[in-house]
């Protein structure tokens, strides 16, 4: 397999883009990534998206966005892996270049959620769960997270407020990110007072419904040009677990997240201690905790203790969600995995401005779908 | 699942929904619900029908305040550890939310789980309720 490099990155601001549709958001992110790489066109486009069919009535996003962004007749198709779709699209592009099928490709993660009303979005998100044995019984996406959080609190003795550091850190980091949706800091008190969505999950445990698109240009070593500031994809790995929560060997160990992280560390030669930052899948604070434990940043049941010590904040042992994460930058579901990689690329190129992690050389990103039924993990190196 | 379950889907799920029918591995004896083509423990393809007894305890639970399209809340959902050692996801019923706790004994009942609009069909299936104290159970006829 050939080495693969990220040479361009682009994104739209995350938010409620009433005036922009899938084609507009997609073209904007793709053109921004191509301009950043100073590349006119590419061999292939991989589109990570979850809800195009369910809430936008639009599939075949490969052709839609290749057309909208002026990439015709490039090979282009959609990659769907629930909330991990963006990470999966980057992996698909990286595999295509690593295998020698293409020399340069674009991966984009994109989601347009504000075209649907709230209960339609809730039902759309529930399609990531087991349709016959979870969603058909009224389990919403939030309710599944609540089942995880209740059990975690029961086994560790944690209180709801103990999850606050993840949300507080995310909002603090989003303040320095012009593309973030929520740029206002929040306090532990505000976190504790936030209304319950599905007890014990509160509004400030959860990432928002929003729109956005983020894209990267990836290429082979032969394609690198003098003006590029390449970031190497040191490893890309994915794994699955039972689609339903009831089928997990240990409910509080995200097996797919752990397996994909183990594979990514083994392939890259790096370990958790080598990572200067971690873009975590903080869709809910409980998922942040479980992802940190799955990747080896804390033993099982210990993530909250380490968070309370400031381990995951700026200046801590491994800063997470350095541009606000899913929680505060925003979580356009199928796009988030691509935003993580765009943001980690900015850190490794030392272009993160006020959010720069000093000395960043190795970054980990993990994109999780279906409450851990699928996970895609990347190790990036400056 | 914006439009909920369609009729053929409901029909093919009837054994699982009405009778908690799963599979038992003919090779290693491992049980599974929902039924799968191969044994999750030993990957054997030889499995046979197994009907779960429908009794267990609450492993975790949550209250749904903002239900998905097709449901009206609030209602309780839970992970139930069946006494055979298999976990199942279901709604809780006939219980005050303040009285639910992890470890609480529950039993399966058949209830309406979805209503397909005012003129649509009804989907029945399993829910779980607290095990009634023996003295609270209705007296047997005769």
What does this protein structure show overall?
The complex is a heterodimer of chains A (382) and B (142). Helix content of chain A is 35%, strand content 19%. With 382 residues, chain A is an alpha/beta fold. Chain A has 2 domains: 4-117 and 209-231, Thiolase/Chalcone synthase (Peroxisomal Thiolase, Chain A, domain 1, 3-Layer(aba) Sandwich); 128-207 and 234-381, Peroxisomal Thiolase, Chain A, domain 1 (3-Layer(aba) Sandwich). Chain A has a 9-stranded mixed beta sheet with strand order 3-2-4-7-1-8-11-10-9, sandwiched between helices. The mean pLDDT of chain A is 97. Chain B is globular, with a radius of gyration of 17 Å. In chain B, a hairpin with a 6-residue loop joins β7 and β8. Chain B has 142 residues and is mainly β. Chain B has a 5-stranded antiparallel beta sheet. In chain B, strands 2-1-3 form a 3-stranded antiparallel beta sheet. Chain B is 9% helix and 39% strand. Chain B has 2 domains: 1-51, no CATH class; 53-110. The A-B interface holds A 54-55, 118-120, 122-124, 126-127, 130-140, 142-143, 146-148, 150-151, 154, 196-201, 244-247, 251 and B 1-2, 4-5, 9, 13, 16, 33-34, 40, 59-71, 73, 75, 77-79, 86-91, 102, 113-114, 123, 125.
